Fold this sequence. Notes:
This protein is mostly helical. The protein is elongated. It has 2 helices and no strands. The longest helix has 33 residues, at 3-35. It has a single domain (17-70), classed as F1F0 ATP synthase subunit C (F1FO ATP Synthase, Up-down Bundle).
Amino acid sequence: MEATALVPLGMGLIVVGAGLGIGRFTAAAAESIARQPEAADKITGAVNLPLFLLEGVAILAEVFTFLMLIL
């Protein structure tokens, strides 16, 4: 099997993995806010940076996978 045939599979796995990670992280934050509503600002602030980093890594992985298809 050629490497170009595996690129769409890799892109799909990247999207699924990032979606699962973001979903679990957000669900844990929502549960924490439900348990301690007074700490919602602190929890939201602590959640934003890792979510942005996770999304950035997923976008970079997509770009590198797409570059493998082109090059």
